[in-house]
Amino acid sequence: MRVPRVFQNIPLSIGAVLELAPESANYLLRVLRLRPGASLILFNGEGGEYQAVLEETGRRTATARVVDFAPTEAESPLAITLVQGISRGERMDFTVQKAVELGVTRIVPVIAERTVVNLKGERRERRREHWQAVAVSACEQCGRNRVPMVDEPIDLRAWLEREVDGLRLMLDPGASDGFSALVASRSLTLLIGPEGGFSEQEIALAAERGYRGLRLGPRVLRTETAGIVALAALQLRFGDLG
Fold first, then answer.
1. Which residues contact 206 (CB under 8 A, 6 or more apart)?
2. How many helices (H) and strands (E) does the chain have?
């Protein structure tokens, strides 16, 4: 059985005995049905991971003892900020999950003209918290020890007013260039539209702000497919895939 990896948002150190977060304890005890003495891997997003042993368990609580530290990292040398047009329900969850697996360092959900999801007031922060939890779960699964930040949703036009470092890219089915036209860059921002794509006005505005339009091929991909393909292409060309 693979050793479970568990994110704990607290300081970790060798020799420490700590009470696991309730959701972590529930997963380990009720889903995996672990017993005292089981091995765990803990990480807190600050780098590296800690070997630990499950100690006392209750109906809804569990403690673990940290026994060792390994400076293991699985971060890509390519720093990618994914600016993703929000899609509905599980599609957005899928996008966040796979983006984390493919090594992004930051995810910015944006609201565009054709976004069909209505996020106002407190609902924006609740969705951000949900997507952040999806990102944490993806790190636990894929071996990353640093959790990408998921920003609170922002209007696309407000995002485009911000200054960003590195290469600026935008997926556009009408663009003439493909990914093979890119030159190497270690830092980039990738802009992907929602389910209905960006409007012509939004594409023009992004171009004015320095975003270079790129096409993935002759077929129009769904937003959740486009993100995976684009990130994989970038990691294969400039990152650590292959």
1. 160, 170, 191, 198
2. 6, 12
CA distance 214 to 217: 9
Sheet of 49-57, strand order: 5-7, 39-43, 49-57, 62-70, 17-19
Compute the radius of gyration of the chain from its Cα atoms.
20
Beta strand pairing call for 187-192 and 167-171: parallel
Q: Which residues contact 233 (CB under 8 A, 6 or more apart)?
A: 179, 216
4 pLDDT exceeds 70? yes
**Closest residue by Cα to residue 127 from 152, 91, 100, 99:** 152
**Per-residue model confidence as pLDDT tens digits over 111-125:** 999 988 877 778 888
| Distance between CA atoms of residues 103 and 58, nearest Å | 36
| Contacts of residue 56, Cβ cutoff 8 Å, sequence gap at least 6 | 36, 62, 63
The reported pLDDT for the residue numbered 116 is 84
- Among residues 201, 190, 200, 187, which one has the least CA distance to residue 223? 190
Please give the share of the chain, as a percent, with pLDDT higher than 90. Answer: 79
pLDDT tens column, 168-196: 999 999 899 988 888 878 999 999 999 98
Backbone angles phi, psi at 50, to 5 degrees: -120, 130
What value does the mean pLDDT take over residues 197-208? Answer: 95
Contact 85, 193 (CB under 8 A): yes
